[in-house]
Amino acid sequence: MQGTPLALPHWAAPVLAFAAFGGLVGWRIGASPLSTASGLVVGAAFAFAATYLLVGAITLAHPGLGREAVLEAASTGLLLLLPFAVLALVAELLLGWNASQTFSSAGLMTACGAVGVEVSRRGGGTLRSMLVPTAIAVALAAAWMILSTFAAANWKW
Amino acid sequence: MASTATIDSGTSPADGSVGDATARTPIERLKAGLLIFVNPGGALKGALSQIPVQVALGVSGTAFGLFFLQTGLDLLRVGGQTLPRLAMTGNAGVAGLCLLGVLYGTAGVALLGAIAWVATRPLGATVTLEATIRAFALGYCPALVYAAFGIVMNVAFGWNTALAFGVTGVLWALGPMIATLREMLGGQIWPSVILATILGGLTLLGWAYLGT
User: What is the largest CA-CA distance in chain B?
Assistant: First the structure.
């Protein structure tokens, strides 16, 4: 990554961020270590799968770009999830808001948009570079919302 | 330094930026403005860098004014138990909160830009204070759109929209903020992310303290 002293694997930032989002959902459900840990694991697994879906879709949409360039774009753009995760923790734990969905959705849209910008910088067409990550972000935000709402309604700890 | 040149002069490097410093017609300027949604850093280097800082602060001031107005309307609807002061003063309290939002969106965002400017100096940024404040203020363009939608829903349907639309809008400003910081720091992503987290946290805590 350009100018980056600490290069993380492309899945690290989303896994960390969604572990936090999932942990918050689990904590809201049961306020117990078990429910929080379960949410944390589910969030991390969701993010891991979501990252590969995003990378796969971008690679398919830009066959000439090369997987290495796509992975580099993903690892840079998806770092933008981290501020949203930290702010969600502050909002929930310090301010007492029940708003982690807001932070996760906005974070996904912003981070996937940033991945699109990075793909564009590496030679993808502007429109195609933006459309694919945005479409994936909308689908992922909806999937995460459904998953966490389902968990809140059905998980009993 | 490259970052100074790009932000201040509006030159458009071949880095995927989409801003157009030559945009002259209203349609071209509108297009350049809308591009902040898809490529905030790039758009800030283009036509938007020509906008006076007062106009830019007008964008963030209006966004926060509408955001705080929604907060006031929500609290008024929920009842006096949440904020007795507001319930006692009623509509005047809501208007006062809206004005507080305008102040927060102008003086507060200018202060935020100044903090970022000071914090990035030791990291090698040479961008002017004015350019930094303008870039930060224009980063609230998406927040303004969200706040405008939110106030329509709030008034027309009686929904409580401060969290759903207001906070979402403010969160959307994080993307442009990180893009701006990256431009200022010559592409360094980690300092940009860390600084944006701190500045975003300050923004949220400020709203939580003043608006609720």
Answer: 57
